């Protein structure tokens, strides 16, 4: 009896840990988070801004693990610091976009009528622009402090969250169990929070993981184009950009920041996959 | 106490074309407490629309619905809260009527908590009691809906409706999505519950065999109107309206294969578009007994014998 109970009460974490891609993704992401924390705490072998004229374009060695760039700065320390900056900007941006977008999307889908129409039309306008172009325009008008870059990316991704939250709400609110809840006399806030939200939660959480990876790419893209992080500060995108003329003879300046971008994006996508499987009770193979 | 439905009409406007769909065209019927009204008709005849109107999911275009002389169509803000103890609805599809992320026990206890129907300490015991009443084991409480069979889910839906302590239960095709082997069990459960709690049922189905099994009185609907009303003996054994006759001829045990007499009574053609109702009697386009006057005058429901009402000019003669 007791054993049976335990099995059916296992939560999403249990099912998440049964998915290989989920575990791999989580490990990669955890690694990146630890790396960013180290950078934030200043636990780096070298100061990422320190220039060392004696060691220009030094190949990877025991002293400079990822080599040095054309200013003699340690690529390892700069990559870690860049990772921290990218993650900070992306997490801030996606949190903002998710909070605003999900709230508007769910309310729009549930309330319908003019409120929904306004929200849908406005997000359509935003969708009409390519993401990077819109982010560029916003950054250009706002400025390029990290929080301004975050805000720009948040504005670009809010319509995605509106759409991701609104669609499922539209179908879930027509389900019989929502009608039953109304007949049973439940209040609208209760129906929204207890009956609609849990049933649209899965695609939203997956979207958060995926958006984080896109946001990292967008931030890198902005920095690459010279509008995100400004030199001498390090950012993964900016490092890739700076490494362009050097790549032919100093591969390490390009490879390591690119590798980190790849790892974090792949990690976040795998986490998204794992979450998708774990959050759907019917998908669980029990 | 009784449920009174008086001249209820419902129209839907199609946004794209602006045309009006006449879903219900003047339904009047009374159901006494403890009785079961069976509603039968083809898809699109308005039986589910009527269920939504009585349950309050939608508003009537005109007409009144009242329970023990208390109007249920007023525009009070807490409409559902107020009528929770009057009417509950059990849907056809046992797969979409339970929240997939809520355990069975929670979906029942939520009602008890929200409306404070039992003291907090007694909630668990009450959930067990309700599950037992519908013939389910107590340990299903901890399961999710997808771990249950269709029949079990439908029992949970019934238990959940009972938790709200309603007097009237609308059953919108409650067994038609279930395996044939499970249907009889659920039907018997419904009959038991009716006796035990003195419930009044509105049982909607397109299956005359199920309707006959559970109903005291039957209303036959066609295109948003009741065309015949009577006790089940009157409707099943002595159907008067050509449409009822056709429905009964289509019952499997009546239309023995190869019997030309019964086969000739089954209907030809489709139900007309409810946006453009035929003139006169809406059934005349498919009616085997239609005469010229049927295209002009729409018949009223006339009592042809005690409690047996028929809307057909040809029967009155």
Q: How would you describe the overall organization of this protein?
A:
The complex is a heterodimer of chains A (286) and B (317). Chain A has 286 residues and is an all-alpha fold. Chain A contains 11 helices and no strands. Chain B has 317 residues and is α/β, with parallel strands linked by helices. Chain B has a single domain, classed as 3-Layer(aba) Sandwich (Rossmann fold), CATH 3.40.50. Chain B has helices at 47-55, 79-83, 104-114, 123-133, 150-163, 180-197, 208-214, 232-237, 242-249, 260-263, 313-316, and strands at residues 2-13, 20-32, 36-40, 62-67, 70-71, 87-90, 168-172, 200-205, 217-222, 225-231, 302-305, 308-310. In chain B, strand 1 and strand 2 (20-32) form a beta hairpin. In chain B, helix 3 crosses helix 4 and helix 3 (104-114) packs parallel to helix 5. The model of chain B has no long low-confidence stretch (mean pLDDT 85). At the A-B interface, helix 1, helix 8 and helix 9 of A face helix 2, strand 6 and helix 3 of B.
Overview in brief:
Chain A is mainly alpha-helical and 286 residues long.
Count helical runs of chain A.
Answer: 11
The chain pair with the largest interface is: A-B, 23 and 34 residues
Which class do the helix and strand fractions of chain B yield? alpha/beta
Helix content of chain B: 25-40%
């Amino acid at each position: 009896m007791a054993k049976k109970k335990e099995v059916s009460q296992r939560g999403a974490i249990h099912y998440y840990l049964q998915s290989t891609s989920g575990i791999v993704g989580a490990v990669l992401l955890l690694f990146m988070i630890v790396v960013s924390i180290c950078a934030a705490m200043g636990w780096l072998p070298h100061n990422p801004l320190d220039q060392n004229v004696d060691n220009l374009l030094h190949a990877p060695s025991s002293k400079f693990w990822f080599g040095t760039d054309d200013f003699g700065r340690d690529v390892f320390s700069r990559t870690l610091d860049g990772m921290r900056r990218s993650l900070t900007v992306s997490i801030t941006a996606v949190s903002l976009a998710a909070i605003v977008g999900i709230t508007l999307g769910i309310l729009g889908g549930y309330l319908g009528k003019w409120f929904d129409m306004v929200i849908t039309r406005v997000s359509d306008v935003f969708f009409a622009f390519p993401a990077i172009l819109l982010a560029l325009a916003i950054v250009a008008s706002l400025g390029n402090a990290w929080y301004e870059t975050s805000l720009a990316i948040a504005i670009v991704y809010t319509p995605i969250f509106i759409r991701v939250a609104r669609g499922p709400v539209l179908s879930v609110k027509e389900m019989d169990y929502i009608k039953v809840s109304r007949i049973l006399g439940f209040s609208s806030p209760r129906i929204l929070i207890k009956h609609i939200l849990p049933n649209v939660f899965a695609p939203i959480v997956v979207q958060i993981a995926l958006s984080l990876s896109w946001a990292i790419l967008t931030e890198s893209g902005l920095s690459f184009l010279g509008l995100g992080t400004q030199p001498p500060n390090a950012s993964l995108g900016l490092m890739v950009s700076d490494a362009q003329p050097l790549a032919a003879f100093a591969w390490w300046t390009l490879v390591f920041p690119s590798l980190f971008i790849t790892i974090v994006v792949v990690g976040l996508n795998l986490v998204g996959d794992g979450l998708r499987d774990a959050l759907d009770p019917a998908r669980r193979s029990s | 106490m009784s449920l009174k439905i008086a001249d209820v009409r419902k129209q839907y406007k199609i946004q794209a074309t602006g045309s009006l769909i006449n879903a219900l065209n003047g339904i009047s019927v009374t159901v006494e407490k403890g009785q079961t009204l069976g509603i039968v008709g083809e898809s699109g005849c308005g039986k589910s629309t009527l269920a939504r109107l009585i349950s309050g999911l939608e508003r009537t275009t005109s007409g009144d619905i009242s329970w023990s002389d208390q109007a249920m169509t007023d525009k009070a803000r807490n409409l559902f809260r107020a009528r929770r103890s009057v009417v509950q609805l059990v849907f056809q599809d046992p797969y979409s009527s339970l929240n997939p992320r809520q355990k069975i026990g929670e979906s029942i206890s939520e009602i008890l908590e929200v409306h404070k129907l039992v003291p907090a300490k007694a909630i668990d015991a009450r959930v067990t009691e309700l599950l037992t009443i519908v013939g389910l084991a107590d340990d299903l409480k901890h399961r999710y809906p997808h771990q249950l069979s269709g029949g079990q889910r439908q029992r949970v839906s019934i238990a959940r409706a009972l938790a709200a302590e309603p007097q009237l239960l609308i059953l919108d095709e409650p067994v038609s999505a279930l395996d044939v082997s499970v249907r009889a069990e659920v039907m018997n459960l419904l009959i038991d519950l009716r006796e035990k709690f003195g419930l009044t049922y509105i049982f909607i189905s397109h299956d005359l065999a199920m309707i006959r099994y559970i109903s005291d009185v039957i209303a036959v609907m066609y295109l948003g109107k009741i065309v015949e009303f009577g006790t089940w003996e009157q409707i099943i054994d002595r159907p008067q309206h050509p449409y009822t006759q056709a429905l009964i001829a289509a019952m499997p045990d009546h239309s023995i294969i190869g019997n030309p007499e019964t086969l000739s009574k089954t209907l030809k053609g489709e139900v007309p578009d409810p946006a453009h109702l035929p003139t006169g009697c809406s059934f005349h386009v498919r009616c085997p007994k239609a005469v010229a006057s049927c295209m002009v005058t729409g018949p009223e429901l006339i009592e042809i014998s005690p409690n047996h009402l028929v809307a057909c000019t040809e029967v009155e003669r």
